[in-house]
Amino acid sequence: MPVKEIQLGIRHGVRKINVDTDSRLAVTGAIRKVFAEIAGEVRPARLPQARPRRDAGADRRRMRDFGQAGHAGDYEPLSLEEMREGYAVAATA
């Protein structure tokens, strides 16, 4: 699905976006490409070469495109003790 269409959905209230299928297709394609390149040579010692490299840049672009990036400053850090107290209160509610 084009990023522009996903962004339109986000602007209209969509809050859950499944991008796992895109990732799986990319990984499957990368593995198939490597297997085609090393056809006839596949043996356990060569399999690490078939592991596709993750494109961290693409992940960062997607996070920016979907409005997820740049929000770390929106939250106040809590100490471990404050977190512990918050969980204790939630557990008794």
The proportion of residues in beta strands is under 5%
The whole-number mean of residue pLDDT values reads 79
Based on secondary structure, the structural category is mainly alpha
Radius of gyration: 21 Å
Largest sheet: none
Q: Sum up the overall morphology in one term.
A: extended
Number of domains: 1
Order of helices and strands: HHHH
Q: Unreliable segments (pLDDT under 50, ≥5 consecutive)?
A: none
Helix content estimate: 40-55%
Q: Roughly how many Å apart are the termini?
A: 42 Å
Strand segment tally: 0
Describe the structure.
The chain is an all-alpha fold and 93 residues long. The protein is built from 4 helices and no strands. 54% of the residues lie in helices and 0% in strands. The mean pLDDT is 79. It starts with a helix and ends with a helix. 0% of the residues are buried. It has one domain. The radius of gyration is 21 Å and the shape is extended.
What's the SSE blueprint?
Elements: H1 3-11, H2 20-37, H3 56-65, H4 80-92
Which tags fit this structure?
single chain, 93 residues, mainly alpha, 4 helices
Put the structure in a nutshell.
The chain is mainly α and 93 residues long.
